[in-house]
């Protein structure tokens, strides 16, 4: 009996460990800037539910919405360092961390979301994802960032020339800052959550965003004139940290990937409905929409931006691929 005791103890120990592992749960944190009910929030929720189901509850992801964990540029750094595990980012702030992504923010590059996804769901998407992965971000789905337009408080805009001299809020992102300067306006980089207050107080005259964000933030209650330019059609990305990714088994990676893909499909469906309802809500509240008639003069203004990023080896090839198709 005695000679076998150490073995018996070891076996009992192993058994205890195995039992503990069966119920082991890993809790993860997801960063999100949007409120409840927004397409991104709903898609993130469906992602976390799917991951929970597919891993039988071993991975539990809590979604922190409304930027409660910090603003986007900060969250980009938090994800990179593994302080948060999952996030949904606009390609604006993301491209400041991964310069090869800047091509995605160039004005008038994609004509609409269908054009953008034709590229992102193919080879080009893989190339952008590879650039992101090298920088610490693993892409699990491309979400729709829609078309962004300018809107102003106390100023009606019927031509891009009416934006001259305005203080325009932009995301913390180089291409946006450069674009606004080329319109002879002053870019003011502000966190998303501070834009409403800035419009109300008049510290900025205008901002630019897609229609669901224009509506969900209440910007439309202050900025009553929208100049419908769709000047930037760009994607957003559902990403997880490389640190989390490296810790997953091959099977769990597959579960995360599948959940990401299905959440992206879901998000894009929700998006189109939300664009329509946002425009409807703002119109009913008396917001004036003026559609750009001819984008050519505005595109010509952007020429220095196109030259700059065509000359830049980190964006040139992607730009050529998009322009040719
Ligand atoms: C929204 C994006 C969000 C950005 C925000 C902004 O979904 O990620 O932070 O615009 O302008 O459309 O800051």
From TrEMBL:
One Pfam family matching this protein: DctP
Record's protein name: Tripartite ATP-independent transporter DctP family solute receptor
InterPro entries associated with the record: DctP_fam, TRAP_DctP, TRAP_DctP_sf
Keyword line: Receptor, Signal
Signal peptide range: 1-24
Cited PANTHER family: DICARBOXYLATE-BINDING PERIPLASMIC PROTEIN, PTHR33376
């Amino acid at each position: 009996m005695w000679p076998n005791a150490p073995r018996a103890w070891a076996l009992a120990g192993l058994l205890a460990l195995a039992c503990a592992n069966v119920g082991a749960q890993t809790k993860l944190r997801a960063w999100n800037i949007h409120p409840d009910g927004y397409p991104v929030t709903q898609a993130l929720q469906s992602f976390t539910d799917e991951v929970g189901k597919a891993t039988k509850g071993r991975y539990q992801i809590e979604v922190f919405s409304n930027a409660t964990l910090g603003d986007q540029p900060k969250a980009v750094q938090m994800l990179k360092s593994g302080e948060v595990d999952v996030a949904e980012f606009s390609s604006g702030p993301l491209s400041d961390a991964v310069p090869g992504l800047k091509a995605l923010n160039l004005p008038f590059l994609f004509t609409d979301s269908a054009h953008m996804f034709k590229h992102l769901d193919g080879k080009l998407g893989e190339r952008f994802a590879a650039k992101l992965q090298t920088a610490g971000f693993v892409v699990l789905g491309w979400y729709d960032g829609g078309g962004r337009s300018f809107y102003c408080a106390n100023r009606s805009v019927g031509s891009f020339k009416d934006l001259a001299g305005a203080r325009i809020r932009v995301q913390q992102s180089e291409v946006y800052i450069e674009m606004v300067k080329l319109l002879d306006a002053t870019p003011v980089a502000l966190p998303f959550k501070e834009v409403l207050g800035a419009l109300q107080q008049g510290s900025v005259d205008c901002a630019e965003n897609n229609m669901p964000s224009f509506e969900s933030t209440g910007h439309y209650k202050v900025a009553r004139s929208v100049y419908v330019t769709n000047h930037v059609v760009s994607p957003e990305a559902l990403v997880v940290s490389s640190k989390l990714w490296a810790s997953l088994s091959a099977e769990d990676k597959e579960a995360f990937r599948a959940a990401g893909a299905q959440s992206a499909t879901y998000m894009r469906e929700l998006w189109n409905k939300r664009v329509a309802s946002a425009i409807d809500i703002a119109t009913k509240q008396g917001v004036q929409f003026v559609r750009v008639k001819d984008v050519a003069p505005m595109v010509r203004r952007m020429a220095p931006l196109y030259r700059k990023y065509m000359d830049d080896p980190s964006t040139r090839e992607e730009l050529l691929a998009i322009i040719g198709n």
